[in-house]
């Protein structure tokens, strides 16, 4: 395993120069884009790490997976999908075009409009403190905290998400004010995790919602099924289709450079690589996953994936 991880990180490292950090949140622009690390957490609870797997970074859009899971647990299937769809959008993660012109609700909970709608529902159900506590359980990492600098940096440059939130409000989709909805959304995006925390979370999802070490059930089976399916179809935004064909592992990216992947019944994978492609997905991270999928036969639908 260690050898495979080393080779994958070495290959990924060659790609980091091609991308950029997410400077639209100024604090993220200060992160060294050459960081690259991976952690695999296998079903026996063993962690395998290579590169910058213990460096803290903000979870960003990967928190959308947690918020969707909590919304399903607290509000149920009908209420959650009452005002958020479950179809890929084919647009960038921060787009408001379809929401304005062709649809009266966000396409799915993995893009900003969908996640802000979910945060608005959650704001009446659960405090940020409890969301943080639950995130620590899901990631098997008690050291996750709010990154105040990133939180304030994003809140200070929130115009686009504010525009999305007002559009949602105008369509009667928000359950709380624009301010409350955005605050919880950005707080969740600003949680400091590591590749290892994401690997732990991935393992819980791979284990049907149970922490395999303590055997504690953290999420219902039906919630995990929905979350993993939506990760496969929408987790990499408008890059989800190609990624599913080539890698075949449900994954979720964030503009902090994180990637969370779930290999059912086998392992969780967490990656940190803040150099992003034009869709906002980690460049080095995608290369690592391509390599791991081929070498360890991780693709959901194939034993041998051809070189694409
Ligand atoms: N907080 C970021 C935003 O709303 C999350 C986006 C992302 O990770 N793709 O723009």
Give the strand tally.
7
Helix content: 40-55%
Derived structural class: alpha+beta
Low-confidence stretches: none
The CATH architecture of the largest domain would be 3-Layer(aba) Sandwich
Main CATH class of the largest domain: Alpha Beta
Distance between the termini: 23 Å
Count of all domains: 2
Write out the CATH superfamily name of the largest domain: DD-peptidase/beta-lactamase superfamily
Mean pLDDT across all amino acids: 96
Strand-residue fraction?
5-15%
Helical segment count: 13
Strand order of the largest sheet: 2-1-7-6-5
Global shape: globular
**CATH T-level topology of the largest domain:** Beta-lactamase
Rg measurement, Å: 18 Å
Ligand names: glutamine
Largest beta sheet, briefly?
5 strands, antiparallel
Can you tell me about this structure?
With 308 residues, the chain is α+β, with helices and mostly antiparallel strands. The protein has two domains: 2-61 and 191-296, DD-peptidase/beta-lactamase superfamily (Beta-lactamase, 3-Layer(aba) Sandwich), CATH 3.40.710; 63-187, Beta-lactamase, CATH 3.40.710.10. Helix content is 46%, strand content 10%. It has helices at 2-13, 26-29, 63-80, 97-101, 112-122, 128-139, 148-155, 159-170, 178-189, 195-206, 221-234, 240-246, 283-296; strands at 37-42, 47-51, 57-58, 192-193, 251-253, 258-263, 267-272. The strands form two sheets. It has a five-stranded antiparallel β-sheet. It is globular, with a radius of gyration of 18 Å. The model has no long low-confidence stretch (mean pLDDT 96). Glutamine binds next to loops.
């Amino acid at each position: 395993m260690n050898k495979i991880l080393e080779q994958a990180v070495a290959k990924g490292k060659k790609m980091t120069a091609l991308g950029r950090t997410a400077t639209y949140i100024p604090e993220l622009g200060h992160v060294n884009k050459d960081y690259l690390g991976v952690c695999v957490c296998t079903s026996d609870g063993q962690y395998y790490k290579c590169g910058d797997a213990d460096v803290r970074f903000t979870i960003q859009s990967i928190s959308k997976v947690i918020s969707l899971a909590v919304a399903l647990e607290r509000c149920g299937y009908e209420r959650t999908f009452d005002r958020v769809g479950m179809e890929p959008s084919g647009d960038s993660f921060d787009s408001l075009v379809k929401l304005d012109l062709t649809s009266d609700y966000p396409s799915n909970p993995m893009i900003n409009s969908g996640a802000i709608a979910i945060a608005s529902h959650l704001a009446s159900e659960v405090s940020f403190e409890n969301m943080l506590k639950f995130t620590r359980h899901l990631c098997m990492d008690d050291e996750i905290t709010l990154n105040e600098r990133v939180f304030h940096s994003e809140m200070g440059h929130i115009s686009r998400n504010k525009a999305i939130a007002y559009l949602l409000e105008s369509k009667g989709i928000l359950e709380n004010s624009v301010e409350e909805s955005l605050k919880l959304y950005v707080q969740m995006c600003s949680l400091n995790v590591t590749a290892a925390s994401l690997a732990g979370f991935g393992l819980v999802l791979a284990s049907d919602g149970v922490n395999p070490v303590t055997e504690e059930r953290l999420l219902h089976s039906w919630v995990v099924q929905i979350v993993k399916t939506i990760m496969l179809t929408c987790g990499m935004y408008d890059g989800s289709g190609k990624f599913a064909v080539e890698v075949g592992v449900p994954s979720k990216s964030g503009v902090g450079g994180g990637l969370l992947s779930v290999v059912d019944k086998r392992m969780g994978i967490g990656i940190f690589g803040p150099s992003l492609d034009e869709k906002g997905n980690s460049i080095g991270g995608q290369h690592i996953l391509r390599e791991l999928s081929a070498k360890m036969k991780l693709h959901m639908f194939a034993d041998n994936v051809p070189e694409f």
